[in-house]
Design a protein that fits this description.
heterodimer; A: 584 residues; alpha+beta; Immunoglobulin-like; 4 domains; six-stranded mixed sheet; 17% helix; globular; disordered C terminus; B: 175 residues; five-stranded mixed sheet; 4 helices; 26% helix; disordered N terminus
Amino acid sequence: MKTAFLAGALSLLLPVIGLAGEYNLTVDRVEIDTGDFVKTGIGYNGKSPGPVLRFKEGEKVSINVTNNLEEMTSIHWHGLILPFEQDGVPGISFPGIKPGQTFTYNFPITQSGTYWFHSHSGFQEPDGAYGAIVIEPEGREPFRYDREYVVQLTDKHPHSGDRIMRNLKMMPDYYNREQQTVGEFFSDVSAQGFMNTVKDRLAWGGMRMMKADVEDLQGFTGLINGKGPDQNWTGLFQPGERIRLRFINSSAMTYFDVRIPGLDMTVVQADGNNVQPVSVDEFRIGVAETYDVIVRPRDEKAYTIFAESMGRSGYARATLAPRDGMEAPVPELSKPARLTMADMGGMHGMDHSGMEGMESMDHSTMGEMDHSEMKGMDHAGMQDMDRSGMKGMDHSAMGHGSEMSAGGASDPFYAEGSGLVPTAANGGKFLSYADLKAQKPLYDEREATREIELRLTGNMERYTWSINGVKYEDADPIRLQYGERVRFKFVNETMMTHPMHLHGMWSMLDVGAGQFNPVKHTISVQPGTTVYMETEVDEPGQWAFHCHLSYHAAAGMFRKVIVEGGPESAQAAEADTEKAGGEA
Amino acid sequence: MSAPRIVIATLAMSVATIAMGAGSHQGGHGHGVSGGKPGEASEATRTININMHDNYYEPESIDVKAGETVRLVVSNKGSLVHEFNIGTPDMHEARQAEMTMLVQHGVIQGGTLNRGMMEMGNGHSMKQDDPNSMLLEPGGSREVVWKFTGSGDIEFACNVPGHYQAGMYGDVNFN
């Protein structure tokens, strides 16, 4: 990075041989029409989503961002490897961009693939401040296609991000339309007085939410490239052509299960990095992830791109067709997923992870739960739970309750017996993280120099989300040493899926493929699971590390990472930024 | 490269007729279209070099005359196992199902070809002995003398799962 930084600095002083591109973005108040509702939001160059920025590997870009809002803004280049001052996180990389100000980002493009950009200020991103980045590689790609489209998903909600956060804080199930018996359940339990004693322990696991709490934000309209299902974004093709679809999930909160009935999709890239191609019928895209797939429609007909939310509360829809105006049938939403005992991270945590405040959750307590708590749960409409599963809880066989598995599907990245394990609508192949293998290792293989455990924690009742039980404001930064290789252990002790995003450095997801572990920027950690990733700490400076669900990040599931040591020039730059921050 | 590979190559040649019969039956659907057949070295008019990369061929098409016999020298310059297979799109599709099985059984693992695992016992064999197919590990190189018997929709392709779909195939253009 030293050379890259020097090169970056030099490029400011003299015209360097090679590519240099200048780009302009304005940050504007815009109108967003989903077909279901119209709202004002935030966009780039007058639109939401903003433009597709097309860069070339090896190019030095300079991007002028003009803030036309009446509040501070920022742009984060999601997944790009760049000097940390260019990363666009207010308070960590730079002070932010003031109203009326134009800030110029300068950085070299050292990678290729599909990425995206978004505001890192407040809830501007859920309000519409996002766009796509496509980087053409220097050499040829390990696959080919005749045409390509960006397919950028989001979950557009009629409420503003600020309002959603207020409502969630006030009543965490405010947007959970499936779940209607919370009040009942609590009144029952509190009448018994039992809840008070174990309230915290149960609340973090959100036991009351267990059935339908797959999504904590419902009531959105799924958009593809800014178009709602009825507005039907359409990509044209000639039969027989190979089409590269660059899927980007820019949602605030929503995971999507994506399929194109009638077409195999060959996944060739994940998070901008080439993977060994794998053909699937369907895949799940986590918030902030990208997947590039190649499809080859041979028939002169329309195909529906169908993306239903993981909790089946909404969907996005688009069309691939030989001519504009052609349509294919739009599938019905599949049956909603239901969390099972296996998804209750707490069930694992209680016995194995020694979470704070959970030590007393021994078998006798569990017995108690059986007698009072379970009754309460019955009242809360737990008809899906069968008795054998309940018995399983008594015997610390939690998490092994395969009898509770939904449909027998399994995936090593979901808890055994999880109700969230996705299955393909046509009974075919559903992509698993376990299928992802790097096309080419990015780093030499070596053993991690140390392991850092990050427990993903939360208290659903108060809508607080945290890491190791501590929210961002109260937490010390994570300090890494330049040159080390860190193994991160994520232990999800909540009942929600968390897409964890480390800025500035790659996350190599451990799928058991050694050197061929896939290289990502965002890693989903399912409820009740432990997932490992490794990072070569090769970028100096300070970086953000957080859950990419907007309202979880804002609630505190967020850390600052400080990389200590490294090239001297970068340390000098760090001091400069702090100075600049002081002036802001 | 190694002794077993030569044996397999030899075997491949010796069962040529049987295998090709199966091949054209499988993929040709009676249209008389097939990839051709192993040719006589003495009839080879020229040599065509084809390099396999991750995951594409170089070149991505070759020009031949109907009935021409050429020497094809195929080299795997990539870091993954690749196949060079001459056939129709239908033949390739059928072959992809077989290859999926090879991957599931661990015969092909990224850059490694476990030839020992092709003999599975119980009389089951996954020996790769079609004359129109070669499976090569990274760094591997082999040649085949091939007679392109007819015209039609003939491709050379890698049927390692996902590779064909990603675009690892080339056209055989008949002039």
